[in-house]
């Protein structure tokens, strides 16, 4: 089970209620439809979705912080490209509200240990700030609430195959 951030829940609430009061109660300047169009691959310059890796997220139900893998001398960077080189994270939705990655997503090869990565975090940047949206646990023998994760050592390339990352909005 993925965890939705407070920012994503606010955006969804704004979208569902569509009142002027609701649309003023969040700090993200883009609407849900803007985020969806960016996610779905329109080449808008108003924002982008990237995938980050985290070793931990806040214990709150609506996670608002996470510990991202260090970029210092490790060759770690967020990714927004997939195997078809479209420049965006290609996600697909089924009729039951389940979203999953359509293509393989590979991170750069680690040049030093990244530690145990327990969460894949979908992040959104509206051009001025970064917002976590969805935290997908990397279960690997653990549970959704207490993922075991995967150890990423030197010279390791972490790849999520098509369909590995999924969440349901229902």
Features:
170 residues; alpha+beta; 12 strands
Annotate the secondary structure layout:
Blueprint (H helix, E strand, L loop, with lengths): L2 E2 L1 H12 L2 H4 L8 H8 L8 E10 L8 E3 L22 E3 L4 E4 L3 E2 L8 E3 L1 E7 L4 E8 L12 E3 L6 E2 L5 E3 L2
Antiparallel strand pairs: 1-9, 2-3, 2-8, 4-5, 5-12, 6-11, 7-10, 8-9
Basic shape: globular
**Domain module tally:** 1
Helix content: 10-25%
Strand order of the largest sheet: 1-9-8-2-3
Mean pLDDT: 74
What low-confidence regions span 5 or more consecutive residues with pLDDT below 50?
15-32, 40-46
Number of DSSP strand runs = 12
> Helix-strand pattern, N to C?
EHHHEEEEEEEEEEE
Q: What distance lies between the first and last C-alpha atoms, to the nearest angstrom?
A: 12 Å
Sketch the major β-sheet.
Answer: 5 strands, antiparallel
Derived structural class = alpha+beta
- How many helices in DSSP terms? 3
Rg measurement, Å: 16 Å
How much of the residues is beta strand, in percent? Answer: 25-35%
Describe the structure.
The chain has 3 helices and 12 strands. The chain is an alpha+beta fold and 170 residues long. The model is unreliable at 15-32 and 40-46 (pLDDT under 50). The protein has one domain (3-69, 79-168). It has helices at residues 6-17, 20-23, 32-39; strands at residues 3-4, 48-57, 66-68, 91-93, 98-101, 105-106, 115-117, 119-125, 130-137, 150-152, 159-160, 166-168.
Give a short overview:
The chain has 170 residues and is of the alpha+beta class.
